[in-house]
Amino acid sequence: MSTTTYRYSTPSLLTKHDDEEQLFLAKYSEVRRGEAPCFFYGNIIQPFILARCLVTLSKVVQSSFTINWAAIRDPIVTAGNDRLRFEGFSGCAGVYARVDIMPDGHTGEFLDNGTTNVDFNQPMLNALNMMGQTDRLTVSVGTKEVGVYTTKTKAVERKVSLPTKWIKGLTTVQIYQSQAICRHRFNRMQLLQLFQSVPKGAPKTDFYLQTRGGRPIFSPIPATDAICIGGIHRLRLLEPLLPLADELHIFTHPNDQITIFTLYFGTVKFSLSLSRDSYRGFSGEGAALDTLMDDMPEKWLSAMDNYSFSNQQFNADLFAIEQGIDRKQVDQVTIRLAAMGLLGFDLDENSFFYRRLPFKLERIMKLNPRAANAIKLIDEDRIQLVSVSNDRVEALVMGDSGVRHTVVLDKNQERCTCQWHSKHQGERGVCKHILAVRKLVGWKKKNA
Question: What is the number of other CB atoms lying within 10 angstroms of the CB of residue 359?
Answer without folding.
Answer: 18
